[in-house]
Amino acid sequence: MDLYVLRHGIPVESSAWLGDDASRPLTEAGSAELTTALTALRDAGELAVDLVLSSPAARAHQTAQIAARILLSRLEILPALAAGLGPATFMHAMEGRTLPNRLMVVGHNPDLPMLIAALAGGSSLLHPLDRGGIALLHGELAPGRMLLVWTKSPSQIAQGA
Question: In the CATH scheme, what architecture does the domain 2-158 have?
Fold first, then answer.
C-alpha cells in the first residue's frame, strides 16, 4: 500500500482567530499553496490516491477537500485523526477496514510525525512535516512495516525537488 501523510495547510493564526481551535480555517495563501503543490505532484506522477481520510478540524478538512478535488478521490472524515489523539488511535480505527492501495491521511503535528515514526521507525523528530508538507510511505499499514519513501515541503515541491 502507498500511504500519503499530509499535514494541513497554513491556517489563520490562532491569535487572530476568535473561534475554537477546531474551527480555525486555512488562509487563502494556504489554500493556494496546497493547490499548487498537490497539482505539481499529481502532474509529475508522484501522487495518486483512492481515498482521503481527514481530521475533523476545519483546516485539515479544507486541506483534504483540496486534495480530493485535485486527485479525484473520495473523502471521509475520520475522528481518529483529530489533533492530539496520536497514532495508536488512528491504527485502532483502521483495524478491520478494507483499505485501498493508495490512501491519504490529513491531520496535524505532532500526530503525523508520530504516525510516520510508528509505521517506518525512528523518532518523530526525524520526520517533521511543514504545514502543507507531505510524506509517502510504502508497505503494510502496521507498526514498523512501512518504508518512508520521501518527505516534501511545499517549497521543495515548488522547486521541483
Answer: 3-Layer(aba) Sandwich (3.40)
